[in-house]
């Protein structure tokens, strides 16, 4: 603006901006590490250079279930189509070997002197239609078996057995893909962020988990693992080092009653990998906390598992989850719009080790928080009083009827005195 008005030369402005940009420290973002578990629970892992591919064919049923839906539907269609074509070729060969394809036999067939293996099968198309009728048991009535060819009876029995096997395998595969356990895990949700706050005088790592369905998860349990890159004293580098951390549960068993959203708590103590991490060190840590929820689906009895993970950028220090369960007209209502909402609370910025060594840090933090809360209440009350006084003064100025009139008093000597009341 000043350069446009020619108060400061434009060359000087550009030079000053360039100098300021050079003086500013340039902070380069740390390369973001790939997650081991995605937020939706998918494993971020690619299998490469697998030489023993034949092991997948040894367990063909699991391989079919693990395939994508488009591949499964293609295999489902091709398995029936190929079986129909294969047995159509066999029926055509049986009819050709018996002489049913010879046009001269048609006149003898009408005079009941010639009995074909299969009636009305005189081309590959009719053999293909008969193959479909046999395998899917349609039976239109135009083509049927006779007692003339034992080989045809054998082919009929073989086709029925093969058709039953194909039906059992493919239908079972589609049923298992439809009722897979991870489908139920789609309605098990986790909070987008985790928090670290003080609970019962201890620093705790907390996150929220909930179930959107009314059908419950039986014997649900929660496990937490820390995955990070470590180096052993011998110099061995472990890229994915998994460490189990305990979950604070007042029940002796590790099961939870997931009837409503719960806040899962992990107390950061000496056993925790987070024991030496402070608020300043958290952003520099290259770790990932994996949360695994397991249980049995009440309606199907299938074991399901839901997973998610939290990296350092998704952990809020000094926050707490807001309550979302309220009692309304005798019913407990859950407001899922506030499922991941947090509120800032007082929490020491030091690590749990420093907090155990100096318990006074927690007391000082709580006292400062109480003083700041009281000061904010005082400021709020004073602002309310000032606003009320200003409002009353403005009302007196705008409304002349509220102004008190002047009253005159007459003394016995006849002098008049005026006063305002």
CATH-assigned fold name of the largest domain = Immunoglobulin-like
Strand content: 15-25%
Order of helices and strands: HHHHHHHHEEEEEEEHEEEEEEEHHEE
CATH architecture of the largest domain, please? Sandwich
CATH secondary-structure class of the largest domain: Mainly Beta
- Determine the mean pLDDT: 78
Can you summarize the main beta sheet? 5 strands, mixed
- The CATH homologous superfamily of the largest domain is named G protein-activated inward rectifier potassium channel 1
Counting DSSP E segments of at least 2 residues, the number of strands comes to 16
Provide a count of the helices: 11
Number of domains: 3
Which regions contain 5 or more consecutive residues with pLDDT less than 50?
A: 1-15, 22-28, 414-421
Overall form: elongated
Radius of gyration: 41 Å
Report, as a whole number of angstroms, the end-to-end distance: 58 Å
Give the helix/strand class: alpha+beta
Helical content class: 25-40%
